[in-house]
Amino acid sequence: MKTNGLNYIDLFAGAGGLSEGFIQSGYQSIAHIEMNAYAAKTIETRIAYYYLKKNNNLRKYYQYERGEITREELLALVPGEELRTVINEEMSPKTIKGIFQRIDTIMSEKEIQQIDVIIGGPPCQAYSLVGRAQSSHMIIPMEDDLRNELYKMYVKFLKKYQPRMFVFENVAGIKTARGGQAFKNLQKYMRKVGYEIDYHELNAQDFGVLQSRKRVIIVGWLKGTGYEYPTFETIHSSVEVWDLLKDLPALVPGESADNYTMCDMRKLRRYVKDNGIRTKSDVLTGHVARPHTAQDIEIYKRTIDLWFNNSQHQRLKYDDLPDGLKTHRNRTSFVDRFKVVEGDMDYCHTILAHLSKDGHYFIHPDIDQHRSITVREAARIQSFPDSYYFEGPRTSQFVQVGNAVPPMMAKIIADKIKEQLIKSKSRCANECC
User: Fold this and answer.
1) Which residues are catalytic?
2) Mind listing the pLDDT tens digit for each residue in 274-331?
3) 7-235+405-432 has which CATH code?
4) Strand 7-11 and strand 117-120: pairing?
5) Helices and strands (H, E) in the chain, number of each type
6) Domain chopping of the chain, boundaries
7) Cβ(363)–Cβ(299) under 8 Å?
8) Opening angle at CA 410, ends 408 and 415, nearest 5
């Protein structure tokens, strides 16, 4: 790949939500570094999707989604140099030298001299407000959690590759973790290795995503380049969360839509079509409902009924349940542990990796389905296209979706950065002439 566009390295890549936005914006990937094996496989599968799409052979990808060919057969269709961009390694002082060597080899093979952008953010659980609230119950206290130091790995990549710009994403809790010292240190190290930076707390809802999801986004640029933090126009979609869910086959607890079942395109809402979430050829995957106990189903129905049959959108409080439906001794904290997805609003509450534990916090808004949402429904709320295939068991898929940056938000960030980088390249070319 001799790049005639822009390139990037994705650190702590997860399932590739941030990367997906940059690919959709036209960037070419140099490397994705991710320690979780299932998430790394998800990125490899996505690479296969784009390679086969480029070569007009998506039929093979759909065969894989239907279970007609194995993953080995799918990946055998993709050149090794494409798949080698996925580095399934944990970043640490012991491994970073080897990771650098692998990236250097990729850059040499592809004749790349300059990294345009580094993107990513270290695991956010150690910084999240929920995680910190529960830190007294954690095996590893927050102050001893090694994830608090992973930002130093990010800075080492900045120092080594000196990208023209970078995007660092994390939860809002990073600003106050350790009394705010961790965030101050992060900024200090970023400036020390040659960058001007700015940061804002952004909400995915303002990028057209049907979800309230607040994240701190740091953007940095090499000193003296004249770049700046992008200006983002607020985009609020005038549709409801229902528009993301209506065309999907209805399921009751424990039921599955076969992985080769096509959605009814006649039910498809404009939001889903216009934002590329679904195309006519896409195969439906990940639409499998959890089984639920009769007790949970009854609570789900009460939760849904309270929300939709009350003008104030009332939430169910755990202590208000009949004694026969209460199983938890703790009735003073997490009283809203049952929460319905806001189908009749233009956004829902934040999708979390906790979905892997249970679905009580993400109940489907249809009382006739009385269940928690599926991986595919969570992925749609996160703005992932239906062609995005998540590898691994369902618990891992939920974690991958819950931790991801919404691709729709990521693409807008990528587009705005691209405007500055392309403009400066053009200016440089003109001056050289």
Assistant:
1) 124
2) 999 999 889 999 999 999 999 999 999 999 999 998 777 899 888 888 878 877 666 5
3) 3.40.50.150
4) parallel
5) 15, 7
6) 7-235+405-432
7) no
8) 100
